[in-house]
Design brief:
This protein has six helices and no strands. By secondary structure, the protein is mainly alpha-helical.
């Protein structure tokens, strides 16, 4: 009745893989498993060095500017 938000067709022509991924059961079960293992440790890692990187880059750029 309503056009599919993915393919935009009324009789949804999306492949069978789309409805399976959209199901909240599959992603919900897979998300908590790998999340606390790898992503949990990787998330805080890139966030910590991120603010430090630009902070160090700022003075580094000013140093050569002042010398010149």
């Amino acid at each position: 009745m309503a056009a599919c938000p993915n393919c935009g067709n009324e009789p949804c022509t999306c492949p069978p893989a789309a409805p399976e991924e959209a199901a909240p059961a599959t992603p919900v079960e897979e998300t908590p498993a790998p999340a606390p293992e790898a992503p949990a440790e990787e998330a805080p890692t890139p966030e910590a060095p991120a603010p430090e990187a630009p902070a160090e880059e700022t003075p580094v750029e000013e140093t050569p500017a002042q010398g010149m």
